[in-house]
User: Fold these one by one.
Assistant:
Number 1:
Amino acid sequence: MVLKIKTSFLYFIKKLFNLSVSKLLIFLSFFIFSCSSYSMQAEEIKPEAASCNISRSISEKKDFEILTIKNKNFNQRLNKIGFNNQKLKYNLFITNGTKPSAGYSLKFDKIIKNKNKFKIYLIETKPNKMSANAAVLIYPFCLLKVDNSDQIEVIIK
Amino acid sequence: MNNIFKIFAILSLPLLLNACGGGGGGGAAGEAVGGGTIPTCSDNSTYTTAEYNYMGGASGAGSGTGKYGLGTVCAGAAYGRGATGEGIDIAVLDTGISVGSGSTTDITDIDSNIATFVSGADLIGSDSVPQDDDNNGGTALGSGHGSHVAGLIANEKNNSGGLHGIAYDSTLHILKVLNSSGSSVGNSIWSGLDKARGISGLDIANLSLGDSGVIGTSCNSASSCESAIGSTGYTALENFGNAGIIAVWAAGNSSDSSPSVMSGSAIYDDDFKETTVIVVATDSTGNLASYSNKCGVASSICIAAPGTSLYSNFSSNAQSSYNVNSWKQAMSGTSMAAPLVSGGLALIKQEFSSLTNAQVVDRLFATASDTGEYAKSTIYGHGMMNLDAATTAVGSLQAIGGSNNLDGIGTSYYNLMDNNFTSSAAFSNALNNALAGQTMEVYDSFDRANFKTNVSSFFTSGSYTSQNTIENHILRLEPKNTHKVKNKNLYGSFTVETNGNYIESSMFQSTGDFLALGFNQSTNSFENEVDPLFNFFNDSNFGNNYLANPYFNTGSGQDYFMSFNSNGSFGLDTFTNANGNDLGLAFNLNPLSNSDEGKSNAGDLQIVFGANYEQNKFLNSTSTGVFATGDLSNTNFTGVKYKKNLGNDFTFVGSGFAGYTYIDKAADSYIDSSTPLLTSEFTLGLAKANFIKEDQRIGFFINQPQRVEDGSLNLRVPTLSDRDRTVTYSNLNVDLEPEARQINFDIIFNKTITESSNLSANLTHVQNGDHSNGSKNQNFFSLFYKKTF
């Protein structure tokens, strides 16, 4: 499920400095390469839309799941959790599964984009150990709209 | 001499032309939900409405009995018995409730009057408005958990919302102890428990919440659980239990083997064990929901109820956040199962005011369905809640023997079948009218749960018209074929009259008619002497004993008489029944000359006065158990009989009796006191021998059977019992004078065909205004033919 985004640049700067060409050429080359390198680095982007919420319409246990709008279950899932009217706004559904009580939640943190790959960071809140919580099945989830949802990695902290 | 009598042919047709009608009963049988081990309910279909069904299945729930949700726990059967939660106070410790604009009493977010609460507090925001602030800045984290739970308990019936809670008439107290995320803050739970404990009259607290610990694992003793919960919380739990308030906890949704620590700690502490109920959740199949914790080590205080996809309130804020249009949404969890049990306890509590809260819990557990799948106590504890069984008798129903204390050492109980009162027809109609609609309490043998029953159910009515049976008409019309043997000697005569093998009478009569001693099955021989009545009055069953002393007309008819006849001037009758329990004594004065057999215009007058004593009955009204009467009820009576030959074979007869009856009160009897009962009876008759022909006779008679003219008795019956196990009795004054007066009209015809054959006919017309419509006039006709071989 976690998509690896390969980001690396291997430069043999030291070797280049050892060459007997002019420092200016080296400098220019380094400068040009640096510019090129900059365009390939991951960047934090803002989703077109993001919303996290909790559904209580789920009556059975469910696990972590990512659904894109291309998935045939996408609309069905939104219908089931009572958010069917949201489907036009979002193209990505993420949940960390059913939870046994209140006190659990998901919160959108950030998206890091690298080329056409996205690393989505969500924050999960859990109830305090000996706190009392409403004993209802809940289903925390986040809905997002991103440019490209083909390759995504979700990291829940 | 052996006379063999055989009935050659009998055509006896008592026809009830305008008779009382009887009614049949019926009941609606319930149907099981989903089959398997889910209880089969005797739900009352009046209550299994669309609102009833909606909780378990949205708009597609359909109709009919036995649907998932309320149908699973047989709530409809409890409703049919009058249990709706009315008068029962339930505290909901949760996220609060959706309070309408400025209101503190209504949920007015969707529809007004969906559910109401009478008090509330916010232990999170420390104010008096327990607002279910579920929107939480647009994140809708709380999402109306408290509103949903409160609605499952007490959403009102017949509102525009389309569904009702399980105890739809109960009274809610809302305590907000969870924040908008559905979590407690600090000691908010325990502060809420303390607050609930201070609510006057509170019976039940619902706690659809819990922690992530597991009882038996996270802690396994009172002390270790106190350490886990903290002393503040544990003390609150103990105090709550000591106050006798029932705490209903959700078991938790982590699929653990036992409930959470907060709910399950009661298992180790007797201070709150007997008033703690833990609830596991089932799904629509009736089996444990996949997410639900099991009862595990807390099985002795644990029960199952539906908790999956139950529909209830969905607050307006949540609607806005979710942008849905319906206020009814389903939620799942032991949070949803717990309020069903809280409401179920409210129904039991309302139904049985005599039970302590601990006994209410005990009854809930004892009546749960525990067969099949539900026999797995480590999963379901006592089984599936069954409100049908919980609101019916466990063990046998019994009447309390006059005590004010349900649990007193000397308190006695009688099985219902051992408490009877069979009333005399002299006042049965008045008694029936007085008892109509009157109820009293009886108690089951399990925990003395109080049940209402009709007082009249213990009473059986005597009826004079019931004497118009085929058998009685045959006896009435059947000419006696007695055999009389008379022996004379120096001292007098000895006469024995037999009927078959039975002695009808025997009499010694001294020379000169100075002394007569005799035995006769009929009380009086008064009517046996004058023709033409001899042929009619020679058996005691004739004409409802028209001429017999009604105060001696009790028991088996084993009567004795003794007369000192000096020209027939006076006599003495004695009476006793077969058991020897009753005794009567009557003096008969005959101021006229003795009847002159065959003498034209002969007449006879007899004046009677005497007393009758009846053991454990009065006026032949028998009673047992809590309706028993004393050993010596007494009747003082007087009467007169007159007969005269009018010539031309006509004979006139008349009799009238009156008496005062004093009922002897038995200790602890529900028949508490009475005024003397004045009774009367009269008969007028005219008979003619040689009617048309010599071999025919006819008679016409008017009779008013014995009737109470004045008097009443006071019934002191248990009508109320409370949680202190104290019984309150109410007085029910019963005027025993019937509103109407029954009059019987009889025409009897008899024809001797041959010496060995006889034909008789009897038409009886009965008028009694107390009878129900259509049967105030009754007619009976009998035709009888007898031939002796």
Note: The mean pLDDT of chain B is 80.
Number 2:
Amino acid sequence: MSKKLFSLNQDRSLFPPNRPDGTIDVDLSSHKYLKIWHGPQHPGITGNMSLELTLLGDEVMDCETHVGYLHRGFEKLMERRKYIQCFPIVCRVAVPEPDFNEYCFASAMEELAGIEIPEAAKWLRTLVLEMARLQSYLMWIGGQGSAFGMGIVGQWTNYCRDLVLDRFEELTGGRIYHMFIIPGGVRGLLPDGFRERMEETLQTVERFMKDVHSTMFNNAVFKKRSVGMGVIDPSWINRFGIVGPNARAAGVPLDVRKDYPYLKYPELDFEPVTGRDSDIYTRADVRRRDLLLTVDLIRQIMAKTPDSGEIRAKTPNVLHWKVPAGETYSRAECTRGEFGYYMVSDGSEYPRRVNVRGPSYTHAVALLEKMIINVNLADVAGLMVSLHTYPPEIER
Amino acid sequence: MGKINDILSPFTAWKHLINQPLTIKDPSKRQGADRYRGFHKNDLDACIGCGTCEEICQNAAIDLVPVEGIETRNGDSGLRPRIDYGRCCWCALCVDICTTNSLTMSNEFTWVDHDAEVFRFVPGAENKPWDDKKEGWKKPGSGYELYEPKRVTMEELHPEERDHSFIEIVKGYSHEQALLEADRCVGCGICVATCPAHMGIPQYIKAIRNEELEEGLRILYDTNPLPEICGRICTHKCEEVCSVGHHGDPISIRWLKRYIADQVPEGDYKRILETEKLETNGHKVAIIGAGPSGLSTAYYLAQMGYSCTVFEKLSEPGGMMRYGIPEYRLPYEELDKDINYIKSLGVEIRCNITVGKDITLEELHEQYDAVYTGTGLHDGRSTRVPGTDHKHVYQAVDLLRDITMGKEVPVAKRIVVIGGGNVAMDITRSMARLQKQKYGEVEIIATSLESEHEMPADREEVVEAREENARVIPGWGPVEIEIKEGKVTGLHVVRCTAVFDADRRFNPQFDESEKTFFPGDMVIESIGQGMNLSYITGQAREELKMDRRGRIEVNDYFQTSIPWFFAGGDIIQGPDVIHGIANGHKAAIGIDRFIRQITL
């Protein structure tokens, strides 16, 4: 008995047998199982979604994901609003990273309308997208740390994120919803002294990332819980539509910035960060290195962003902008991978259909349901955070 | 080694024990950034209540509401935006689209109150602590505009192409140009209130945008049966108040109206306006004068089923539009297009009939159910300075009429025109053309009491007159026409220092010490026109009430003190085509109600 309770090598004979397809036969009336709801208010869940877990002991036997707590019907709302009126809405699709929505929406419109945005606007858009990546990673890393019991990491990185938000506030006028990338261009040039303050912020981020590295990544506890955990097999990449760092940690260098270059990325010097082992630790490490790459990219962008110049192309009057009929797909690399807007216009003042492709949909629903089987309940939050999902973009 | 490192390394976090704690800044003490999108401010004096902010707001957070102390006036709806912070998302599109740049944002972002109602407020009207804050979101600078502030340039004949002929100067918009110009409109409708006819301006501009010109024509005819004419020579008061004009060029409302009317062929009018079959109601109305107000009355009455007969003294209908406005501004065939359509509705226009001579007002009253008069201002006024009784001193309206009628008009080598209004410019430019034809050169001086910026003529008229080598010299008052050996030799003038007194009454002041002389072999007076009501005789004359300024008194439906007698147009409102059209429309409603015995 004692052997069963305390052994690290559990006796698998107590577990129900696997079916040929890998699933198990759960008979709730046997009283061997426990069903619990994990979320939607659990702090380890990234946002408002919940997992309906079937446990045997503290091991997950089965999982069903539930979304819908956050549904606000953005895609449908957009069909009833003029294009310019969608602009304040789209940023709300993915709260922690509004800028990718703004960019994809604007660039889809511009592509349909055949508008080329000015040079300065392109640089400023690239800058804003990388700043968004930086602050999103900083928030994620705190979540990953605290999911494994390291609260201090989140405090450091959220402090750093706050500094990045200060820069956002200066540049765009808003901290969370920036509403800066407007169809046709951007809404302002760099403010005075912005470069110096940005450099200061980047140095602070780098300093704290060194601490994060020594506290979290060189940490026996973290390694013990994350190495070999939640492995994504490279063969799943196409099957599940895995993108971004989740795919790169499996050694598949998927990065929209390189694969389908947009804005000013072709003029920047960088290589996608990849890993090999595809477990939670590798994914975290890929994101950490990607974060540092972002710091480097922001420096490159700052060096090239002009201080003056046109910020917005000539567009029709936004109050009755009729985007020519057609359809297009516009994409960008966000922290979770490929973010895209599929836009259909029937030539009227209102979009006929806008479909948002958020990477969280595939990562947080189908992939998580597969990966979570046989994971210890205590590791569920850590696993979820390691996939880096944002439910708002599932429930557009 | 790696494992030991993994155990020891996390302890490096202890070094932060000696550091200051990382704390998030206290929002109640923290300043927002210079561009922060905080609480709204509004400069109530600059704001015109156009409601474009309300239009763009996707949250319906903005309502336009009346505000105490702000009156509705020309170009100002009298309303101001009220913002509901339960709905606002601080996107600042309202600021970016604001036509007057009055709406801005401060960088304040904390506001605590126990009453939820206070968060729905009128910025600028409630003395908020952030009203004087300089920082905060403002519309980004030029090049960012959410609508095009610059007008699509209207192509015109070059001065050297036009200075010797009466060919129409303005070429009109092409399809692409009209679409671009129509796109600039923000659709606020401030213009509608100002337009005397209250035309559906945003609606017909929208019809142009949607390429629905037939719908556009229907909208035009709802309020204006002379769109070809108004599309060319309307005084476009609408454009003076256009909200886009506050920081940019106003929309070319007049040219867009002309575009619709030009594009639709005359033959399609009846089908589009659904007037192929008009049922008559058996009542008859007589209209005196085939000018804009008379034609407008006839059109709307005909629509209602009345049989209208228009009596016109001159040989062609159109009134001042034909006999006052030169052909280079309004070609006769465009005038005829509008008039022919009105005729096609069964309106009978009997020309060369002078009421009071060929038929009396009493006779009209006996034969018709109601009579409308819009005889206009056709008698030129004189300055009455010494010398004006000379035979080579002319009245502008008489000469303009003669030019239209094709009569031989005296053209001197040197001409002086007295007057600074549109009629003065019309005669100056017409005579300049005739001089160019006759002598190959232009030597004409137009002088007015008013200074350059006070001149009542449209700016473009003055500019174009100068382009055609006419000299416009404002700020001089006529003293005497010099006559030597029976011939006019020129005009003596003195400097005019002020035209109006403090009460805005006409009371010119002169500086006698500053004098000059404008040489000329003929002098044309164009200082205004008077009316001739001599056809109103007998009992009607006695019963007709006049006001202190000698104008016929009318009610809101242009009914005079004689119930069957209606009057409108220039004789009531002063010289203006669009006012005449508006009067005619209102009078038609009044006549209809009079005949159907509905209390006016």
Note: The beta strands of chain A are 34-38, 50-56, 59-66, 181-182, 185-186, 326-334, 337-345, 351-357.
